[in-house]
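Still learning folds. Look over my entry:

…
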Amino acid sequence: MAIMIRGNSIVQGQPIRCYDNGGKTFDRYTVLYMAEPERQAGLFASVGMSTNPFHPQGFGQYCTAMPGKHLGKRILFSALPDDCQKLVRRGLTPVEEA
């Protein structure tokens, strides 16, 4: 289950932002890991993926991205296909307990 805080979905204790470009490109979905900023200001670790990222003809690749409407419409984590949710969870950095 994911909750929303400050416009970010919270999954496994980590803030993420999910985008859907409506199928304009093969990597339809982009998810940014908001707790993992890159050195260049405004860039975050992310994953771009098709609807079926684990299929031999699917796409799922970790990259960097800048948040914004150029990635498509903001969506809830729960709106991602199940396999996309699975790939996003695999990329989350475990939260260390104090």
